[in-house]
Specification:
binds flavin mononucleotide, single chain, alpha+beta, about 170 residues, four-stranded antiparallel beta sheet
């Protein structure tokens, strides 16, 4: 799939078929993530693949009050947890998000779906044994889409574009 086509096609998917995603495909997607620009080339990211059903259900349970997120987390056959070394503060989170966008585009081009879910707090860090010095940038439920939502319409570029001054 052409890059611009992947950019157009990418949209947040929050419901998945139970089919397993091959490890080779997951590795290809994560390798695309690691090609992202990142501050000082420190590559602050670390990835945790959560395949274990009990763990996935525990993470879904953290979103019990937000049904679309809970459904995404409990139906996806695998979760990609992107952690980052928080030594570089904003730069590290910015780098992590460059990596996350590469992951989202790569999974789209593989015919897969996903969504970036914000996870703050200690619960997920404790559950996944994430050491001090690292935070969670996102949890991406990944799988074959079992829904086809409309992509939210974007504000036309000419309303966002400024030339020379704001
Ligand atoms: C930094 C960031 C945090 C997000 N956090 C959440 C989230 O916690 N839950 C969620 O359902 N979607 C989350 N999203 C996905 C957005 O809701 C989604 O990208 C936006 O509504 C546009 O829809 P689209 O991705 O289908 O184009 C997040 C996206 C970004 C970039």
């Amino acid at each position: 799939m052409d890059l611009y086509e992947a950019i157009e096609k990418r949209k947040s998917i929050r419901k998945f078929k139970p089919d397993t995603v091959p490890d080779t495909t997951i590795h290809k997607i994560l390798s695309a993530g690691t090609q992202a620009p990142n501050a000082f080339n420190r590559e602050p990211w670390e990835f945790i693949l959560v395949k274990d059903k009990t763990l996935r259900d525990e993470i879904a349970g953290m979103r019990i009050k937000i049904p679309p997120q809970k459904v995404a987390l409990e139906t996806a056959p695998v979760l990609i947890v992107v952690c980052y070394n928080n030594e570089l503060a904003e730069d590290a989170l910015g780098s992590a998000y460059a990596c996350i966008e590469n992951i989202l585009l790569a999974l789209t081009s593989e015919g897969l779906g996903g969504v970036t879910l914000t996870f703050h707090g200690k619960n997920i860090k404790a559950l996944l044994k994430i050491p001090d010095g690292y935070d969670v940038a996102t949890v991406i439920p990944l799988g074959y889409p079992d829904e086809s939502p409309e992509k939210p319409i974007r504000i036309p570029l000419d309303q966002k574009l400024h030339i020379n001054e704001f």
